[in-house]
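Subject: Interface between my chains keeps coming out wrong

I've been trying for a while to get a sensible model of this assembly. When I model each chain on its own everything looks fine, but I need the whole thing in one frame so I can look at the contacts. Pasting all components below, labels as-is. Any help appreciated, I'm running out of ideas.
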Amino acid sequence: MIRLEKVTKSYGVTVAVSELSLEVNQGEVCMLIGPSGCGKTTTLRMVNRLTEPTSGRIFVDGQDTAHVRPEQLRRSMGYAIQGVGLFPHMTVSKNIAVVPHLLSWEKERIAQRIEELLSLVGLNPAEYAGKYPGQLSGGEAQRIGVARALAADPPILLMDEPFGAVDPMTRERLQAQFLRIQRSLKKTVIMVTHDLDEAIRLADRIAIMEAGRLVQHDTPEAVLSRPRNKFVHDFVGTDRALKRLSRISVSGFVRQSPSISISASVEEAAAACVRRRWVWVVDENQRLRGWIDRDSLHEVASVRESIVATDPEVIAVAETATLREALSRMLGQGLRSVPVVDDRGRLLGEVTVTDVENATAAREA
Amino acid sequence: MSHRQARRWLILLLMVAAFAWLISNMWVWETALGYLFSQEAQVIHPRASLLVLVLEHLRLVAISSAMTVFIGVSLGVWATRPGGREFLPIITDITSFGQTFPPVAILALAVPMLGFGLLPTVAALFLYGLLPIVRNTIAGLDAVSGDLVGVAYGMGMSRTQTLFRVEVPLAASVIIAGLRISIVINIGTAMIGAVIGAGGLGSPIIAGLVQDNLAYIIEGALPAAMLAVLADQLLTGIEDSLKTGGD
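Reply #2:
Try treating it as a single job with all components included. I did that and got this:
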């Protein structure tokens, strides 16, 4: 789909990108990563000719991009950059409509597309279409940025740290959403990042760059288990096993777990705690409310009184979360399992430490 | 349009109407000035009615400002394009020089070449008003974030599309501020046209100075001041309505 052949970009004597060859297959997410100044953004910008290569050739769909008009080439690729990308003088819908407008789509088609895209990124069209970027939160702005890049349904997306300027919680949610969207749309994506965890989570293949050269281009698993040289080894760090966990979704490991109602009596709770030390507590709508410990059941009148950590946000993980997050919650709570909830906070089951161990062992083998 | 903005435009409209009424009813001036300067035999400059003087004045301002705006904005845009970048220092130097040079001196130089009347006055006003427009156009366009321009190109806009859909709208309020300054200066400076027979509100002032008649001077100065205030308010209104992108 996208093929770079010995592409070099130099500014005078400084070489930003040196003889880089890279192939990104159709429907694949390629994460370009490396320390700052390694040439990853320059590489991205050469694909849509915002920067012209000094030498080498770039093919998109087998066609040499040097022979395509830059405007035409760019309109066939979605482009999203960190934070600042939205035009502040245009409403959300005008921002999304930029490329469809350039492609002279009909009005009704553009309006329909705006609605589709806002729903796709989880924003209510009626509420957001007329807002200006200045009225959006960081996370909302990033989502509009992604929606805008997808506007004309381009087969290729180029993204330069699209989730860079938001807080970690929002970033995690945006990444989960990106994965969900990507699974259904199957775009060919090149994304620049400096965040290894993000790369591992989103990539089909990771391209690691150092000083303008491509050091390793491989699946996240391969990069983590078989770093090609010392640079990659140091770059991925010593917690590789932990990082690998962030490739694995908890959804495959959710198992049934005992739970009791918050209105249950102490006797019922004690009965539920016979076989294990702690039990999840849910309300009448099956929503997780916390957990109770066997030892805390003495000298109390009701389950309500002895419940621990009542904020489900803190103790539970979503179905879309990774094993790494699950493990981190377990360690944080000092428990051997973590409850899994759906998007309405209802208890689906739990993931245990043993599951995490088994998952690690399976990948190791 | 917000409620506050609607009220502002209404007030402005009323002010314009009041001004129009004032300049088309000479008896008001005659009574007021006659009361203030009872010792003067004549309190109204006999050359022409105020309405005629104001229209003459506005014609001077309109012609010269139209030229400054068109040429000033064009120069500013060109100086920020890749092709014109290298001329940027020369352009700012020349326009600064145009403002440092006194308009009266330009008149003195222009009369031998262009004769008396409208033409040399317009030339002087044009040169004098160029600086704020060129300077603000350049400043406004330069202040547009390079990242945004990069995104516009990255999404497939051509240079012209980027200029008109992204850069100019984002720089608009700064550019309009330049126009406002230039036009208000122009209304005041256009007085000198009377010296070489271009008419306008300068005529009663010159006559008043020559004949030592304060009433004449006020007859010219007061409407000119009102005109300047009105123009300033009108353009500030436009300027503010362009500062969107939020609330």
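Reply #3:
Confirming on my end. The CA atoms of residues 116 and 252 of chain A lie 30 Å apart.
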